[in-house]
Specification:
single chain; 337 residues; alpha+beta; five-stranded mixed sheet; two-stranded antiparallel ribbon; 14% strand; elongated
Length: 337
C-alpha cells in the first residue's frame, strides 16, 4: 500500500491531496498517475529563489497585495500562488539576527582565546574545529566569513549571503494542479495551511486513539481492510467532533470562520471559543469537555436487564439509565433522542 493512497482517503476537500514538502517529488509522481486526483504542495526555498532570480517573482508585488498567482515553465500545468506574510517576515528577520548575535558572541570568545595564546600558538586545525562547531551550532555558517591561520583568527558577517536570504523572508509559494474554477487562490492557501490537521489525523490514527500500527496481518487485502476500518473510525470521530463542538473546547463553525478571514493571517480564536476557555462552561451552562472526557461521560450509560422474582415465569425487562444534562445535550446534537 502506498502512502499517497492512504493520505488521499483522509482529506476532506473533494479529491485533493495535501502533500508534505519533504516527500513532495515522489508523491506528485505517484499522484499524476491518477488524472482525477488533484494535489496541493509548496515549493522549497531553492525553487522560490530561482523564481526571484529568473524574474518570475518580484518582491515589489507585495507592496500592494500579499497574494499573487504566477506561472513557471518549470511547473507546466500547475498553478503557483505566491504569498507574503509580513508578520512571518519580521519573525524570521528577528530570529536570524538573534542567531547571528549569539554566534558572534562565541566567535568573539574564540578570537580572544587565540589572541591570548602567544607563548604556544593555537594551530590552524584546532581553530578551525572550534570555529566550525560554533558557526554550525545555529546553522548560520553560510552567513560568516572566517579567516584562520596558525595563531590568528578573525571573522565578519557575509552581508551578501544575509541579503540573499532576506529576499525570501515571509515568502512562500503554494503549488497545485487544481484549476482556478474549482479552487480559488485564497482557498488553495487555506487548504494547504490545513495540512497540519492531516498530519494530526495521521498521528491520531497511528497513535493511541485508533492504533493503526502495528498491523499484525500477512495478506495484503487484510492490511487494506485494517487500514480502511481505522480511517472509517477516524471519519466517524471527526463527524462527532464537529457535531459536538458546542460541548467541546473546539471552535464552532470553524469552516465558516476560515472562509471569512484572511487566508494569510494568523488564525485567532473567536469570542465564543475564548469565552468557553475562560468560563469552562457552554452557552447552556454545561461544563466544557474534551472529546475524551465526553466519551467517558457517555460511556457510563447502561442498558440493564431486570428480572421480576415474584413473576412465575421469571419475566424480564430492560431499563436504560437516566441521562444527565450533559448526556442529554450530546444526544440532542446527534438527533438520536
Amino acid at each position: 500500500m502506498q502512502w499517497s493512497d492512504i493520505q488521499a482517503s483522509t482529506t476532506s476537500c473533494g479529491k485533493t491531496v495535501r502533500c508534505n514538502e519533504r516527500r513532495t517529488p515522489g508523491q506528485i509522481e505517484h499522484l499524476q498517475k491518477y488524472p482525477g486526483l488533484g494535489w496541493i504542495s509548496c515549493l522549497r526555498s531553492t525553487a522560490i529563489r530561482g523564481l526571484l532570480e529568473d524574474g518570475l517573482l518580484h518582491r515589489c508585488w507585495f507592496d500592494e497585495t500579499h497574494l499573487a498567482e504566477i506561472s513557471s515553465p518549470d511547473s507546466p500545468g500547475e498553478r503557483l500562488i505566491a504569498c507574503h506574510n509580513p508578520l512571518l517576515a519580521d519573525e524570521r528577520r528577528r530570529k536570524r539576527e538573534d542567531l547571528l548575535q549569539a554566534t558572534e558572541k562565541h566567535l568573539q570568545k574564540l578570537a580572544a582565546e587565540v589572541a591570548r595564546r602567544t607563548r604556544k600558538r593555537m594551530g590552524k586545525t584546532a581553530i578551525a574545529l572550534k570555529a566550525g562547531r560554533i558557526v554550525h551550532r545555529h546553522q548560520v555558517a553560510k552567513h560568516f566569513q572566517l579567516t584562520i591561520e596558525d595563531g590568528t583568527f578573525s571573522y565578519r558577517r557575509h552581508e551578501a549571503s544575509i541579503r540573499r536570504e532576506e529576499q525570501l523572508d515571509g515568502i512562500y509559494v503554494v503549488r497545485t494542479s487544481e484549476p482556478a474554477g474549482r479552487l480559488s487562490a485564497d482557498d488553495t492557501v487555506r487548504s494547504y495551511k490545513s495540512l497540519a490537521e492531516v498530519e494530526q489525523a495521521f498521528r491520531g490514527v497511528k497513535g493511541l486513539n485508533l492504533r493503526l500500527r502495528p498491523i499484525w496481518h500477512r495478506l495484503e487485502n487484510r492490511v487494506r481492510a485494517h487500514a480502511f476500518l481505522c480511517f472509517l473510525a477516524y471519519y466517524v470521530q471527526g463527524h462527532l467532533q464537529r457535531v459536538w463542538a458546542p460541548l467541546l473546547f473546539a471552535e464552532e463553525n470553524l469552516w465558516k470562520l476560515r472562509q471569512r478571514r484572511d487566508a494569510l493571517a494568523k488564525a485567532q480564536p473567536s469570542a465564543a471559543a475564548e469565552r468557553k476557555k475562560q468560563t469552562k462552561q457552554t452557552r447552556h451552562g454545561l461544563p466544557v469537555q474534551s472529546f475524551a472526557t465526553l466519551l467517558e461521560s457517555l460511556g457510563t450509560r447502561c442498558r440493564n436487564t431486570c428480572q421480576v422474582p415474584s413473576h412465575p415465569a421469571g419475566a424480564t425487562f430492560t431499563q436504560l439509565t437516566e441521562l444527565d444534562p450533559l448526556q442529554t445535550e450530546a444526544f440532542r446534537l446527534l438527533e438520536t433522542l
